[in-house]
Specification:
Length: about 180
C-alpha cells in the first residue's frame, strides 16, 4: 500500500507494526480473515476489546484484509456502534471470556473499579479511565487477561491492579502524554 510521502509511509508502517503486535487485533484477523463479512466482524471485535477502533488498527486491517482504508472508514462512520475516539484516556478492558472468568476475572473487574473509581461501562469524571468487560481477546493461555490501550497484561491477580492503574496515571501525568 503506497500512500503519500516517505515520512507518511514510515508513519503508516510504524502504526501497522504496532497493531500487528497486539494480540486482540491479531486474533480477530486470524478468526475472521477470508470469511464473509470479515471486515465488520473484525471491527466489532476491536470495538469490543478497545471501546473504539484506533487509526493504527484500521491501517493494519486495510492491509491484512485487503480492504481500502476509505471502505473501513465508511463502515466505521456509518454504524453508530463504532467509535473513532477512546472513551477515556486509558481504556481498561477486562476479559470475561470463559477462560479468564474461571481464573478470576470478576475479582479483577472489582479491583480495577475500586482503584480507578470507574464503574463497568463508564469513565471516570476526568475521563482518565474507562472500564469495560470484553469477550475473549484471543490469548486464553495468559488468562486472566486485561488490555489497557492495546497493552496486554496476562496472568493477573488482584494484587497487580494497583500497580497497573498507577502506571497509567503516571503515564498521563507527564507533559508529553497529555
Ligand atoms: S477468555 Fe480471556 S483471553 Fe480468551
Amino acid at each position: 500500500m503506497a500512500i503519500g510521502s516517505g515520512d507518511t509511509i514510515v508513519t503508516i508502517k510504524k502504526a501497522m507494526a504496532k497493531a500487528a503486535g497486539e494480540p486482540d487485533v491479531v486474533a480477530a484477523v486470524k478468526k475472521w480473515k477470508n470469511k464473509r463479512g470479515s471486515l465488520i466482524m473484525v471491527l466489532h471485535e476491536i470495538q469490543n476489546s478497545r471501546g473504539y477502533v484506533p487509526r493504527d488498527v484500521s491501517l493494519y486491517l486495510s492491509q491484512e484484509l485487503d480492504v481500502p482504508l476509505s471502505r473501513i472508514y465508511e463502515a466505521l462512520t456509518f454504524y453508530h456502534y463504532f467509535k473513532l475516539e477512546p472513551p477515556g484516556k486509558a481504556v481498561i478492558s477486562v476479559c470475561t471470556g470463559t477462560a479468564c472468568y474461571l481464573k478470576g476475572s470478576p475479582a479483577l473487574v472489582e479491583e480495577f473499579s475500586k482503584e480507578t473509581g470507574a464503574k463497568v461501562g463508564t469513565s471516570t469524571e476526568d475521563k482518565l479511565f474507562h472500564l469495560q468487560c470484553v469477550r475473549c481477546v484471543g490469548c486464553c493461555g495468559l488468562a486472566p487477561v486485561a488490555i489497557v490501550n492495546g497493552k496486554t497484561y496476562g496472568r493477573l491477580t488482584t494484587s497487580d491492579i494497583k500497580k497497573i492503574v498507577n502506571e497509567w496515571r503516571e503515564h498521563f501525568s507527564t507533559d508529553d502524554a497529555k
